[in-house]
């Protein structure tokens, strides 16, 4: 080599599809849920040789719910892949579900070639435009050199702050293009700020309010679970001697077998939880957002209470209920710091009153009925599983009965669609949870109408030999809709009764096991047989068709104005 020769170095390149796979591996992705299509074939070709396990659902919505439940049950980011056009639009229900419940997801969608965008090309849809309102962030990649960094940003945004779904739309030419393999760069996200630690003065004020209160209640939501704050919550409740009530999304944040537990509050919550909230002098809200199903009539909610609101998302604070002491920060950090400042107080009169409410208004049903009561099925399931199963549900009456009668003792044990109320969530969620927790017992407690929406995912469970259980509460109706029609529409059951298939035989056709119980005395044996199965299993319980969920706070009523308390007392 002469002195005048300039040595040239060549940066190695890879196709964009390989860059995607490498970046997923960089983030510890070991499984993804995806459905093939023309514009994601380059990506799936590279996945063929990768160590990432690819689970193919029967519908993209099911795949998104699987990734969602994978994330909820582990705390990791779930990953779902879909092709352009209908593949991407089929993700929308799953993305909206994850957005409402603050679930960390990364969705990768294929897109037509960049030069065709806007020309109504085959299977083209404006994916970023469609999904902007139902994702925490979304972006279309039009420079292949930005692929890796965009994916890194997506994982960071999805999993930090208030978690949520992030979508990356990737045209097929970005997957084919040769891209320099460059090392990760520092993330630069102007305007994206996370306040993990609360302000010391606000935390001190909150602790002082706890120490001076006579009738406090801890009201906790899904933010405690997603923020890994269950242990500091337990310690704070014990040290300061405070009863704890949970939202639907918060179930499992605090052991329901603990004497301090008030179980779930709200429209179909326990009467004693609702009475406690309405009579408390201090309401400590942690990781919840005062949803309308919790508060009832807002103007009459917790009328005598000062409100502490602890939340990582500043936009949630005082959005529905004004906070007297707002604390912006992660539940784990704030509760840990409060723990050092709070004091034990006996509060005998308060706990005596709560004990009286619990004695007078327990969760009840008619145990002497000759028909199969849905509550009995769930209670028996709880007994036979010793309360240790991971439970998923669809949406409707069976979901509320599950929240009432399956007592959860740990976080990430109960996986359900809260904010969006997505029917059909249960079965694909059970599959995602089982893949994430292969040694766990995973059971979908479902309703016949919810199950009908996504039952084709039984094929997925059979294909991957996933012994998920479906405990079907079959009442022949869209149960919650029928209940409202009974109570508010003069029992005019317009369109709420659907003819279902023979679910046990249908399960067998899919290659799963089908069981059925039509008599009350058959229930324990069918549950035992279901739990013993090594294959996917559907147990179809034909329950009382017009059983209602009680108690119930009617729309527009205050939290203490519950219907059904007299029914409970007579049962």
Q: What is the CATH fold-level name of the largest domain? A: Rossmann fold
Overall morphology: globular
Q: Number of DSSP strands?
A: 20
CATH architectural category of the largest domain: 3-Layer(aba) Sandwich
The CATH superfamily of the largest domain bears the name: Thiamin diphosphate (ThDP)-binding fold, Pyr/PP domains
Strand content: 15-25%
The main sheet comes to: 6 strands, parallel
Which segments are poorly predicted (pLDDT under 50) over 5 or more consecutive residues?
none
Radius of gyration (Å)? 25 Å
| Multimeric state | single chain
Task: Compute the average pLDDT.
Answer: 96
* Overall number of structural domains: 3
Q: Which CATH class of the largest domain is shown?
A: Alpha Beta
Tally of contiguous helical segments: 24
How many angstroms does the end-to-end distance come to?
A: 96 Å
Quick description:
The protein is of the alpha/beta class.
Structure in words:
The structure is a single chain. The chain has 571 residues and is an alpha/beta fold. It has 3 domains: 13-180, Thiamin diphosphate (ThDP)-binding fold, Pyr/PP domains (Rossmann fold), CATH 3.40.50; 200-360, TPP-binding domain (Rossmann fold, 3-Layer(aba) Sandwich); 374-550, 3-Layer(aba) Sandwich (Rossmann fold). The chain is built from 24 helices and 20 strands. The strands form 4 sheets. It has a 6-stranded parallel β-sheet with strand order 3-2-4-5-7-6, sandwiched between helices. A 6-stranded parallel β-sheet has the order 11-10-9-12-13-14, sandwiched between helices. β6 (137-140), α7 (147-159) and β7 (165-171) form a beta-alpha-beta unit. The longest helix is centred in the first third of the chain and has 15 residues, at 60-74.
């Amino acid at each position: 080599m002469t002195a005048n020769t300039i040595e040239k170095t060549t940066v190695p390149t890879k196709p964009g599809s390989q860059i995607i796979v490498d970046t997923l591996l960089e983030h510890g992705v070991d499984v993804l849920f995806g459905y093939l299509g023309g514009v994601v074939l380059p990506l799936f070709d590279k996945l063929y040789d990768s160590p990432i396990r690819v689970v193919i659902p029967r519908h993209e919505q099911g795949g998104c719910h699987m990734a969602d439940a994978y994330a909820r049950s582990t705390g990791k980011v779930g990953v779902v892949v879909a092709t352009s056009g209908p593949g991407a639009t089929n993700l929308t229900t799953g993305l909206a579900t994850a957005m409402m419940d603050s679930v960390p997801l990364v969705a990768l969608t294929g897109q037509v070639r960049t030069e065709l965008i806007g020309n109504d090309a085959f299977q083209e849809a404006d994916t970023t435009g469609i999904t902007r309102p139902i994702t925490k962030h979304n972006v279309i990649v039009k420079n292949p050199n930005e692929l890796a960094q965009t994916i890194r940003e997506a994982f960071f945004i999805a999993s930090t702050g208030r978690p949520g779904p992030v979508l990356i739309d990737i045209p097929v030419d970005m997957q084919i293009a040769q891209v320099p393999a460059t090392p990760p760069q520092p993330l630069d996200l102007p305007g994206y700020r996370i306040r993990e630690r609360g302000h010391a003065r606000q935390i001190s004020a909150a602790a002082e309010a706890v120490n001076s209160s006579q009738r406090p209640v801890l009201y906790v939501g899904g933010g405690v679970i997603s923020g890994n704050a269950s242990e500091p919550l337990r310690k704070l409740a014990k040290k300061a001697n405070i009863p704890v009530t949970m939202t639907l999304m918060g179930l499992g944040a605090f052991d329901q077998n603990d004497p301090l537990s008030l179980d779930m509050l709200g429209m179909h919550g326990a009467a004693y939880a609702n009475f406690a909230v309405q009579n408390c002098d201090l309401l400590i809200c942690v990781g919840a957002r005062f949803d309308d199903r919790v508060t009832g009539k807002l103007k009459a909610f917790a009328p005598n209470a000062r409100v502490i609101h602890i939340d990582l998302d500043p936009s949630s604070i005082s959005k529905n209920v004004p906070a007297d002491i707002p604390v912006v920060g992660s539940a784990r950090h704030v509760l840990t710091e409060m723990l050092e400042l709070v004091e034990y107080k006996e509060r005998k009169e308060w706990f005596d009153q709560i004990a009286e409410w619990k004695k007078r208004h327990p969760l009840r049903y008619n145990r002497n009925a000759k028909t199969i009561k849905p509550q009995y099925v769930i209670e028996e399931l709880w007994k036979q599983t010793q309360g240790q199963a991971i439970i998923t549900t669809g949406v409707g009456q069976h979901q509320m009965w599950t929240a009432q009668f399956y007592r959860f003792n740990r976080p990430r044990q109960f996986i359900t669609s809260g904010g969006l109320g997505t029917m059909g969530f249960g079965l694909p969620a059970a599959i995602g949870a089982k893949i994430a927790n292969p040694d766990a017992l995973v059971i979908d407690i479902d309703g016949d109408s919810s199950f009908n929406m996504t039952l084709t995912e039984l094929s997925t469970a059979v294909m991957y030999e996933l012994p998920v259980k479906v405990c079907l509460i079959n009442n022949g109706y869209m149960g919650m809709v029928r209940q409202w029609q009974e109570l508010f529409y003069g029992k005019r059951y317009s369109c709420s009764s659907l003819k279902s298939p023979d679910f046990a035989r249908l399960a067998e056709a899919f290659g799963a096991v089908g069981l059925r119980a039509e008599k009350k005395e058959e229930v324990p044996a069918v549950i035992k047989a279901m739990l013993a199965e090594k294959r996917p299993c559907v147990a179809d319980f034909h329950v009382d068709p017009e059983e209602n969920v009680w108690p119930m706070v009617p729309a527009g009523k205050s939290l203490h104005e519950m219907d059904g308390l007299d029914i409970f007392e007579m049962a």
